[in-house]
């Protein structure tokens, strides 16, 4: 441990030798991406040489790649040289009271039933010390440390547990994986790191909410979660409150590793700014998420509720390497107004008796376009592999679209792969039935949509599920004329 | 005599410009059970839909006063909140939506409308259990999704269950007997009878006399070609059973 600390210090010192010209005192680099920018970021974060080199390798590879054209989405490509790739966490402007918060934002908070204190925290209003989440977070960390669980920002992990980071970083999503993953590998600024030791069952849901120091992780987030033999962890990402951000492009990478008999449950609620009714503005959310079921009997389960972003490009996947390992993907994706989503999963069966389940619920409203894209691949050695996929689409109105692109590749004759798909519209008869019981049309639509998503919502931790239901209602607000 | 709960005066209505109801006159007072009988295509279900306010069914003439209000002016949900209940001929499935959750939402809409406090899940369950006992319904029904995968009989029983919980002033039962075997019919009818009180009223829409052996009407009306062509007491139903509709239609028919 002390040896690696020494090494870091050495490297921090040696970073300067690379002779980049950017002023190290400045908090923001000018727009543009070059090896110098990457060295600057790495030095700013006092990273060890191996990480700087890893970033540079990713960058050099990225230069040879092209932005994928196959997703069923249309947008203007970002100008990657016009982005500023580093800015130190900005001190958020502190407001004196909630009255200073954008009234539109407050209306949404109220609809979501977010408590006043929480509203203050989210919108940067100074909070009474007693309810400040800092104290909550501290208690939380002490509790985890007792069990040997490491849960910190990515930068902290690089400083304190470089051996773990070096061992696993890029082991599931290599820097060569895809255009956005390569870019992220080169320029990521922060994120989360989590390690659950052998045989430990993490006693609480881990949520970025408690990791306040990472409130400003920015547009290139990196998450790495390792569950050692027999460990269990449930991780929550995101927040139902609307997230506005001045950065249009978000390209995160999440890597999960489950050792023998370990289980990781990863739940996401994504509510980035979707743009206005005419499709102006909105976040491009290009995310690479992948889990490796490395050991026998391990299990990785993805649950996502995607309601935000102008464009979503996201395929949380599982590589089922260990024998008897299991992968699950439960997804609700909503596109309203001009939103576009191309999302799904990949289940790669390598080990024997591996099983996977895919439940995807796509909801399109307004002029929204929703595509499910999923791959089930059974390799030669994956005897008795099983997959069940169900992809349901629900249409609200007649200007939206639902598309399904399933890819199935089976190389072992003992495999069983099932795929079910359906497309339906909310029926006038359903609306009238609910109206006749005293429920008005928008509430009726929300009720029908929530019923449609039930199989996914029940996979979410209780509190998250309640919030997700409300969020769905807000996302579909005004979808009925 | 009690003031009328609903007073339908010269009501005309249709769908897509096609006239279906051609001047209905009907007065229902609290405590009464009215049966509306008639052959297929006479406009029975349309009458139910028009009173409940279904989109696409346009009122072209006449008026409906319900509990002192202009019914036609009210939205479908407000009619429901004002205590008008339609038991559907074909109850609709709402996949994934829990029956109890749905019913509590409906119940609370009614309470909000009356400026009463909403009822929480625990208190609501107590109310619901009591109604289930009254109607001898299995509790499993509470845990299922609204009508999803229900048999025809279960769907009809679920309608009567909802009616019991929402406790309407005026219930319109649209062909509640269709698709029921004799045992299911008896159970459903007994439920309706148990819910009958001096301050509520029921309109039973039916094709067959059979249901009226169980739900005994005070008045029977025959609907044909969009008009009520004959009214009488419960004995009219028996006469229809014996002679069919032809003898009436012959007299009034086209």
What's the structural blueprint in terms of helices and strands?
The complex is a heterodimer of chains A (481) and B (254).
Chain A: H1 2-15, H2 35-44, H3 49-63, H4 103-112, H5 116-123, H6 133-146, E1 150-153, H7 154-160, H8 162-168, H9 179-187, E2 190-196, E3 206-207, E4 221-227, E5 232-238, E6 249-250, E7 253-258, E8 263-270, E9 284-293, E10 299-306, E11 311-314, E12 317-320, E13 326-335, E14 340-349, E15 355-364, E16 369-378, E17 386-395, E18 401-410, E19 416-425, H10 428-435, H11 441-452, H12 454-457, H13 462-475
Parallel strand pairs in A: 2-4, 3-5, 4-7, 5-8, 6-9, 7-9, 8-10, 9-11, 9-12, 10-13, 11-14, 12-14, 13-15, 14-16, 15-17, 16-18, 17-19
Antiparallel strand pairs in A: 1-2
Chain B: E1 6-15, E2 18-28, E3 33-37, H1 44-52, E4 57-66, E5 69-70, H2 76-81, E6 84-87, H3 99-113, H4 121-135, H5 140-143, H6 152-166, E7 170-174, H7 182-195, E8 201-206, E9 219-224, E10 227-232, H8 235-243, H9 246-252
Parallel strand pairs in B: 3-8, 3-9, 6-7, 7-8
Antiparallel strand pairs in B: 1-2, 1-4, 4-5, 9-10
Structure description:
The complex is a heterodimer of chains A (481) and B (254). With 481 residues, chain A is α/β, with parallel strands linked by helices. Chain A is built from 13 helices and 19 strands. In chain A, helix 2 runs antiparallel to helix 3 and helix 3 packs antiparallel against helix 9. Chain B is an alpha/beta fold. Chain B is built from nine helices and ten strands. In chain B, the strands form two sheets. In chain B, strands 6-7-8-3-9-10 form a six-stranded mixed beta sheet, with helices on both faces. In chain B, helix 6 packs parallel to helix 7. Helix content of chain B is 37%, strand content 26%. Chains A and B meet through helix 10 and helix 11 of A and helix 2 and helix 3 of B.
């Amino acid at each position: 441990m002390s040896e690696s600390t020494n090494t870091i210090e050495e490297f921090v010192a040696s970073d300067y030798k690379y002779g980049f010209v950017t002023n190290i005192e400045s908090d923001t680099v000018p727009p543009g991406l070059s090896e110098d920018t990457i060295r600057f970021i790495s030095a700013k974060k006092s990273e060890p040489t191996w990480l700087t080199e890893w970033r540079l390798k990713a960058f050099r590879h990225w230069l040879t790649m092209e932005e994928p054209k196959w997703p069923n989405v249309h947008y203007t490509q970002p100008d990657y040289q016009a982005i500023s790739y580093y800015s130190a966490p900005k001190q958020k402007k502190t407001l004196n009271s909630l009255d200073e918060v954008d009234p539109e934002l407050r209306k949404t908070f109220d609809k979501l039933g977010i408590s006043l204190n929480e509203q203050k925290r989210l919108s940067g209003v100074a909070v009474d010390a007693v309810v400040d989440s800092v104290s909550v977070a501290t208690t939380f960390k002490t509790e985890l440390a007792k069990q040997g669980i490491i849960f910190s920002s990515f930068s902290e992990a690089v400083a304190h547990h470089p051996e773990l980071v070096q061992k696993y970083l890029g082991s599931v999503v290599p820097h060569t994986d895809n255009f956005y993953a390569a870019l992220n590998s080169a320029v990521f600024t922060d994120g989360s790191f989590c390690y659950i030791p052998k045989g430990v069952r993490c006693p609480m849901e881990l949520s970025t909410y408690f990791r306040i120091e990472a409130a400003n992780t920015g547009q290139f987030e990196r998450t790495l979660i390792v569950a050692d033999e027999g460990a269990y962890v449930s991780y929550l990402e995101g927040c139902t409150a609307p997230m506005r951000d001045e950065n249009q492009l978000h390209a995160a990478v999440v890597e999960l590793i489950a050792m023998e008999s370990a289980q990781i449950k990863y739940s996401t609620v994504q509510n980035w700014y979707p743009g206005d009714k005419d499709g102006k503005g909105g976040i491009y959310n290009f995310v690479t998420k992948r889990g490796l079921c490395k050991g026998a009997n391990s299990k990785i389960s993805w649950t996502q509720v995607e309601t935000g972003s102008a464009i979503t490009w996201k395929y949380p996947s599982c590589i089922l390497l260990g024998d008897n390992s299991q992968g699950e993907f439960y997804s609700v994706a909503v596109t309203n107004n001009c939103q576009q989503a191309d999302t799904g999963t990949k289940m790669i069966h390598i080990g024997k008796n591996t099983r996977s389940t895919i439940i995807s619920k796509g909801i399109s409203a307004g002029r929204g376009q929703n595509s499910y894209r999923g791959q089930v691949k059974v390799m030669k050695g994956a005897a008795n592999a099983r997959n069940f996929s169900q992809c349901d689409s629900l249409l609200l109105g007649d200007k939206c679209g639902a598309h399904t692109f399933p890819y199935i590749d089976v190389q072992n004759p003992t495999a069983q792969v099932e795929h079910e798909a359906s497309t339906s519209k909310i029926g006038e008869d359903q609306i009238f039935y609910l109206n006749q019981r005293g429920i008005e049309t928008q509430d009726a639509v929300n009720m029908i949509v929530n019923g449609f998503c039930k199989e996914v919502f029940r996979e979410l931790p209780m509190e998250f599920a309640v919030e997700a239901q409300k969020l769905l209602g807000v996302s579909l607000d005004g979808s009925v004329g | 005599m009690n003031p009328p709960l609903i007073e339908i005066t010269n009501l005309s209505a249709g769908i897509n410009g096609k006239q279906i109801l051609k001047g209905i006159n009907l007065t229902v007072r609290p405590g009464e059970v009215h049966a509306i009988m008639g052959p297929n295509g006479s406009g029975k279900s349309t009458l139910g839909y028009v009173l409940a306010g279904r989109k696409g069914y346009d009122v072209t003439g006449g008026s409906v006063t319900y509990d002192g209000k202009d019914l036609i002016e009210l939205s479908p949900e407000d009619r429901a909140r004002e205590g008008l209940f339609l038991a559907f001929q074909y109850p609709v499935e709402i996949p994934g939506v829990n029956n109890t959750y749905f019913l509590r939402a409906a119940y609370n809409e009614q309470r909000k409308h009356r400026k009463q406090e909403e009822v929480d899940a625990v208190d609501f369950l107590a109310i619901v259990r009591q109604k289930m006992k009254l109607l001898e319904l299995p509790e499993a029904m509470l845990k299922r999704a609204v009508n999803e995968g229900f048999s025809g009989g279960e769907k009809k029983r679920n309608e009567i269950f909802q009616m019991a919980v929402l406790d309407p002033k005026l219930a319109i039962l649209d062909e509640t007997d269709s698709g029921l075997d004799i045992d299911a019919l008896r159970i459903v009818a007994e439920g309706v009878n148990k819910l009958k009180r001096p301050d509520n009223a029921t309109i039973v829409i039916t094709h067959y006399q059979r249901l009226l052996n169980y739900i005994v009407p005070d008045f029977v009306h025959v609907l044909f070609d969009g008009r009520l062509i004959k009214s009488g007491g419960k004995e009219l139903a028996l006469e229809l059973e014996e002679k069919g509709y032809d003898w009436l239609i012959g007299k009034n028919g086209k």
